[in-house]
Design a protein that fits this description.
The chain is α+β, with helices and mostly antiparallel strands. The protein has one domain. 56% of the residues lie in helices and 9% in strands. The protein has a 4-stranded mixed β-sheet with strand order 1-4-3-2, with helices on both faces. A hairpin with a 4-residue loop joins strand 3 and strand 4. Helix 1 runs antiparallel to helix 7, helix 3 runs parallel beside helix 7 and helix 4 crosses helix 7.
C-alpha cells in the first residue's frame, strides 16, 4: 500500500498543470489531437471510428481488475475522501467559473477545464490512485495516462494498437 503514491496522483486534480496544454515533448507513442469534438467523441461515445477502443470500457476493465483485490474497498474509500476534500477546496473556483461564464468572459479553455473532461479526469485519476494505493505492478498504458495528465494533456481515447489518444488543451484559445 502506498498512500503517498496515491496522493501524488490525486494532487493533479488541483494542480495548475491539469489541462495546461502539452509541451513539445509529449507522451512517447501517443496520438496527440487538437480537435475538441474528436476528443469528446473518443472519450464519451460508444460508436467510434474504426481502429479505436471505447475509452470508458478500457477504464472500467481496469477498475474491474482492481475490484477483485481484497483491499479495494479500503483504497476506494481513501481516494473518495481525498477527492471530496479536493472538491470542497475547489468549490470557490467552480463558482467563479460559473460567474464568468454568465458574464460571457470565459475563454474556451476555461470552459474546457470545467467540462465533462474534468469529470472524466476525476474518474481516471481515481482509478490510477486506487491502483497505486494497492501497490500493484505498473501497467504501461496506465503510466502513459498519468504522464499525459502530468504534462497537461487530456487522455481521451485508446487506439486498438494500444496507443493513447491525448487531447492538447493548448489548442484552445
Amino acid at each position: 500500500m502506498s498512500e503517498d503514491e496515491a496522493v501524488e496522483v490525486l494532487q493533479l486534480l488541483a494542480s495548475d498543470t491539469l489541462f495546461a496544454g502539452l509541451p513539445d515533448a509529449a507522451v512517447a507513442g501517443a496520438i496527440v489531437i487538437a480537435e475538441l469534438d474528436r476528443a469528446f467523441l473518443l472519450a464519451f461515445e460508444q460508436s467510434l471510428p474504426e481502429g479505436y477502443r471505447v475509452w470508458l470500457d478500457a477504464i472500467e476493465q481496469c477498475r474491474a481488475r482492481l475490484r477483485r483485490h481484497p483491499r479495494f474497498d479500503a483504497a476506494q474509500a481513501y481516494v473518495e475522501r481525498w477527492m471530496l476534500d479536493c472538491q470542497r477546496r475547489q468549490a470557490g473556483e467552480r463558482i467563479e467559473h460559473r460567474k464568468r461564464r454568465l458574464a460571457g468572459s470565459n475563454t474556451p479553455r476555461d470552459d474546457f477545464r470545467w467540462s465533462e473532461a474534468r469529470e472524466d479526469a476525476m474518474f481516471v485519476l481515481a482509478t490510477l490512485a486506487i491502483h497505486r494505493w494497492l501497490g500493484l505492478p505498473a501497467e504501461r498504458w496506465l503510466d502513459g495516462v498519468l504522464q499525459a495528465y502530468r504534462l497537461g494533456g487530456w487522455p481521451c481515447g485508446l487506439h486498438e494498437d494500444g496507443r493513447l489518444v491525448i487531447f492538447d488543451p493548448a489548442s484552445l484559445r
